[in-house]
Amino acid sequence: MKYLKKLRNSGLRPTKQRLQICEVLFDTEKTFHFTINDLVKKINKQSNNKISLATVYNTVHAFEKKGYLKQIPINSSQTYFDTNISDHHHFYDLKEEKLIDLDNSDIGPINILKKISGKKIKSVEVLVKLED
Amino acid sequence: MKYLKKLRNSGLRPTKQRLQICEVLFDTEKTFHFTINDLVKKINKQSNNKISLATVYNTVHAFEKKGYLKQIPINSSQTYFDTNISDHHHFYDLKEEKLIDLDNSDIGPINILKKISGKKIKSVEVLVKLED
DNA sequence: TTGTACTTTATAATGATTCTAAAAAGGAGT
DNA sequence: ACTCCTTTTTAGAATCATTATAAAGTACAA
Ligand SMILES: [Mn+2]
Ligand SMILES: [Mn+2]
Ligand SMILES: [Zn+2]
Ligand SMILES: [Zn+2]
Questions:
Q1: What is the 3-class SS of B101-118, one letter each residue?
Q2: Is residue A1 pLDDT above 80, yes or no?
Q3: Is the Cβ pair B125, A129 closer than 8 Å?
Q4: Contact B94, B131 (CB under 8 A)
């Protein structure tokens, strides 16, 4: 099992639900963006074992907390997640309601000149909205 | 009435609810960030006329569509709006759950090198998450 | 003033997400 | 394998921000 160690190292018990979700999320050529609903569909397509919705939510949040997923800041009725955990940014196609990766190299370096005392920067995320 | 013309020019009838909401939103020294709940509280503090929740939602969305408000892309349980409609960016203090403006001058120019054919850029927004 | 389109409102509906609490499963130690 | 304890899963209920409904009220052009 490919993801046993990953889960154990994270202090997450490698249950069959988590292993299956790992396969759907991480056994792919390319990274991708998804909502919880997208993920449930993928799970059901991949195998006949249903995983309860609560478990899908729990697992996604557990993976996010461990840094295996990123949440994308966007105003949508559903929360978007990203299996691409590298520093990068996004186009958001308003018409298609689709996210597109923007590599760091697609944007010049970003320099935050303002400082807030007692706080440090955790992340810098750029969202570029696209219209026709 | 200070906002009659503004509303008429927008094709929005200047009802007393809209005028009151204009006062709360735009009769201020500084711009600010708010959720619908914040706004309802401000309205109730300012006068005894209650405005129905549906009207607050309708009005905020009408003003956003007209460009008098901006929605801030952030993952929160409530949608944040901004009376500062200039091009600018945000710190988000994760601990305090507060937004702080980042002027364009606080960030160097942002150059989006990647192009998507048939699409044009509508907005570029940077969200900087802060932790302790 | 009258007609009509727009607006407000109370209320219900929606839908994503979280909560609950009981059953199931993982795993360390024996 | 058995025990014991903790973690996890699960169905279903609850939450809650937001949107829809449709009836009553209002703005305003003619
Ligand atoms: Mn979440
Ligand atoms: Mn909205
Ligand atoms: Zn991405
Ligand atoms: Zn702002």
A1: EEEHHHECCCCECCCCCC
A2: no
A3: yes
A4: yes
Work out the average pLDDT over B46-60.
95
How many domains is chain A built from? 2
What 8-state DSSP symbol labels residue B48?
A: S
Q: Are residues A75 and A59 both part of a single domain?
A: yes
Among B107, B122, B132, the residue with its CB nearest the CB of A129 is B122
Q: Does the CB of A61 sit below 7 A from strand C?
A: yes
- What pLDDT sits at residue A11? 94
Alpha helices in B14-123 (DSSP H): 16-26, 36-46, 53-66
Helices (H) and strands (E) in chain A, counts: 4, 6
Q: Mean of the per-residue pLDDT values for chain A?
A: 94
d(CA B83, CA B72): 10
Q: Of A46, A90, A84, give the one whose Cα is nearest residue A68.
A: A84
- CATH code, B11: 1.10.10.10
Query: Looking at per-residue confidence, does B3 or A108 come out higher?
Result: B3
**Is the minimum distance from the CB of B41 to strand D below 7 Å?**
no
Neighbours of A52 (CB within 10 A): 10
Write out which nucleotides of chain C lie closer than 7 A to a protein Cβ.
6-11, 15-20, 25-27
A52 pLDDT above the threshold of 80: yes
